[in-house]
Amino acid sequence: MKRILLLIVISISLLTISGCNKKEPLNSNIDNTSKEKISSIVLYFSVTNNTKRIANLISEETNSDLIEIIPKEKYTDKDINYNDNDSRANKEQNNPNIRPKIENKLDLSQYDTIYLGYPIWWGTVPKIIYTLLDNYDLTSKKIVLFCTSGSTGIETSVNDLKKYNNKLNIIDSKRFSANTSSKEIKEWIEEQNLPKGEKSMMTNQIKVLIDNKEYNLTLEDNETAKSFIKLLPKEFNMRELNGNEKYIYLDNPLPTNEYNPKKINKGDIMLYGNDCLVIFYESFDTNYRYTKIGHIDSLDNLENKNITVRFEK
Ligand SMILES: Cc1cc2nc3c(=O)[nH]c(=O)nc-3n(C[C@H](O)[C@H](O)[C@H](O)COP(=O)(O)O)c2cc1C
Known about the structure:
This protein is of the alpha+beta class and about 325 residues long. It has helices at about 1-20, 50-60, 90-95, 130-135, 155-165, 180-190, 225-230, and strands at about 40-45, 65-70, 115-120, 140-150, 170-175, 205-210, 215-220, 235-240, 245-250, 265, 270, 275-280, 285, 290-295, 305-310.
């Protein structure tokens, strides 16, 4: 009996000792699978869409939001004719004081990494990138520069940007050719271990199909456009009016911030009142007040009849 009691006591104490000494793995309360939350955006300027294509691929690969830097005055083919000394792009690049205006307002506060892309113009950044730096303080962000070019490398543009603002934290830079594959982009991001983000689905570009023809719609950065995007994807049968617009009354009102744009441009999408969605397919002067939702690029001449419009997300 004594031996049995002794055995019980020994086993209990052994159990207790091993219980006390049982070490929790270090940092067991830290979930090693969760990484530091970062938020990144691909911000780009592009005229002939080469940089835009690369920007899209980087955004997909890094799970970043995507926003185009839209010039207030769009560049025409004539504007970017580098063989013409008097072309707009050449004059801008030759004049150190020129800062082409940016059309869209950007909210970059939530991002800690910015992938900033541009085409090489005369060996360096187009002047609109300086406008960006003049208007937005990017010094607290990690910046990854990328460019497309015929053959020129990115180095001069990186040095010029560093000279322009020596507080910029440029963590990497890379030049791409227009036809760089998504595989090459993926490899670059992995090799350099570049930051990836968590998309907040912020994009100012959506697809629109008008009678099955695809167009690109650039949205305004306002509450109306944000509320409109929540309705998508959606198809509307829009009615013809006055030989210059197609309209539809929405089921529910959207927030408004009306103003008189003075001039309607072909391709503008406006909200009239708080629930009438209008696509203008001619340019003309106006005294009416609207809230702008966006603009359809290179809209064809639409016929004088009702149309089917599908807004994708
Ligand atoms: C005004 C102008 C100047 C250019 N200068 C250069 C240059 O110095 N070196 C080069 O390799 N490519 C140069 N290019 C070609 C562009 O960098 C190239 O086509 C780029 O991919 C265009 O990008 P985007 O389609 O995004 O606008 C120039 C293009 C333009 C319009």
